[in-house]
Specification:
Helix content is 61%, strand content 6%. It is mainly α and 109 residues long. The protein has one domain: Multidrug-efflux Transporter Regulator, Chain: A, Domain 2 (Orthogonal Bundle). Helix 3 packs across helix 4.
Length: 109
Amino acid sequence: MTADDNLGRLDDDYPAYTTGRAAEILNTTQGFLRAIGEARLITPLRSAGGHRRYSRYQLRIAARARELVDRGTPIEAACRIIILEDQLEEAQRINAEHHHTRETRSADR
């Protein structure tokens, strides 16, 4: 069994991956991961020894940033786009919940 086989067993938020392993999984550089951290797109947790650790959730975000950068988007803009996409998704989720609540209340009357 490889480390990748364990991906499905780990909690999405558990910081399981070192910077080197995360870069390898994403086929990118450690410098790229540091750059998106500096842009505050993701904030890796630190091990007891002070080393960066990334979760599966953070790797998905980093992969999206890598896609945008590979298409020619500057890294700062890519990070901003991802943040805005996330905010939009959250707003849409909240709106859907409010809409559902209103429909439920209307049906109960």
